[in-house]
């Protein structure tokens, strides 16, 4: 018995050695902060006054449902996600289709298209802020030459929100392109050639062959973009600081404002927990849809 038990432990130990570092890393940088945030979300936890900290139950969560600014920030965050990500997906998909062929210079074009993805969010936000500057910005100058009057794009609530979304589309659509192109090159060319012999048109091949085969790739890309979009902060903070008139105060910025401007860490943690729950619901929906389609 002892020999068999020692053998089982010996067989499992190499696997445990490989998994253990990852488990420790995930526990330290992901699980522990989440548990800690959930814990202090039930406390009145001012950052600068330790004497007034205390357990208040679900009061922070009740306050959230009565906070109009929270719902406004959540509306802006979801609007950002449901506008920017589909546009990025569509652009990435069709550009990947266009470049999924060999011609002179195609490798250089593919490489150049990926450059915006590698720009740091802070630099991207700063660059767009400078380009939209009404007096000397490059985009403002170009629009002026087209007859559009000089406008303070980031000082107007409507155009500032649109500018934040356009900046994200510019920076992240190549991410979708990269994923979809990697999926496209793995589709057997014999399937497309058979469809051509059967007289299938372009949209028939796209809808009946390419999209079904790319569904796992697209789902993975959407999940990663969703996670990134829910935590968007630095580029918006640099571009607008959440203004004007809270027009670009996405939920991530509102959480930051509550934690580090008003020092309500407990309240900010409660909003962070709700943001995690929303992320899990959307991610679970996408994964289930993908599994149902696959089955």
UniProtKB/TrEMBL annotation:
Q: What is this protein called?
A: Carbohydrate ABC transporter membrane protein 1 (CUT1 family)
Question: The ABC transmembrane type-1 domain covers which part of the protein?
Answer: 74-286
Q: Which organism's genome codes for this protein?
A: Petrotoga sibirica
Q: How does it sit in the membrane?
A: Multi-pass membrane protein
Localisation per UniProt entry? Cell membrane
Where does the source fall among the domains of life?
Bacteria
Q: Is ATP-binding there in the keyword field?
A: no
What are the GO BP annotations of this UniProt entry? Answer: transmembrane transport
GO CC annotations? plasma membrane
């Amino acid at each position: 018995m002892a020999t068999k038990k020692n053998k089982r432990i010996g067989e499992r130990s190499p696997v445990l050695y490989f998994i253990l570092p990852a488990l420790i890393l995930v526990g330290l940088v992901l699980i522990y902060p989440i548990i800690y945030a959930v814990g202090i979300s039930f406390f009145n936890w001012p950052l600068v006054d330790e004497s007034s900290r205390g357990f208040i139950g679900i009061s922070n969560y009740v306050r959230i449902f009565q906070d109009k600014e929270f719902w406004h920030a959540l509306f802006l965050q979801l609007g950002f996600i449901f506008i920017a990500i589909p546009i990025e997906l569509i652009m990435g998909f069709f550009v990947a289709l266009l470049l999924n062929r060999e011609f002179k210079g195609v490798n250089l074009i593919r490489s150049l298209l990926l450059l915006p993805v590698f720009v740091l969010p802070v630099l991207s936000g700063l660059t767009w802020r400078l380009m939209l500057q009404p007096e000397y910005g490059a985009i403002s100058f170009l629009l002026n030459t087209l007859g559009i009057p000089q406008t303070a794009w980031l000082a107007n609530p409507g155009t500032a929100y649109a500018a934040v979304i356009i900046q994200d589309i510019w920076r992240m659509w190549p991410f979708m392109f990269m994923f979809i192109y990697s999926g496209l090159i793995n589709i057997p060319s014999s399937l497309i050639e058979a469809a051509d012999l059967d007289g299938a048109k372009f949209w028939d091949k796209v809808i009946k062959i390419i999209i079904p085969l790319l569904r796992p790739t697209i789902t993975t890309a959407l999940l990663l973009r969703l996670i990134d979009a829910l935590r968007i902060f630095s580029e918006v903070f640099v571009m607008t600081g959440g203004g004007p008139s809270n027009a670009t105060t996405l939920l991530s910025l509102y959480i930051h404002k509550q934690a580090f401007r008003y020092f309500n860490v407990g309240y900010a943690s409660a909003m962070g927990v709700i943001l995690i729950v929303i992320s899990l619901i959307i991610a679970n929906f996408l994964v289930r849809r993908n599994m149902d389609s696959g089955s």
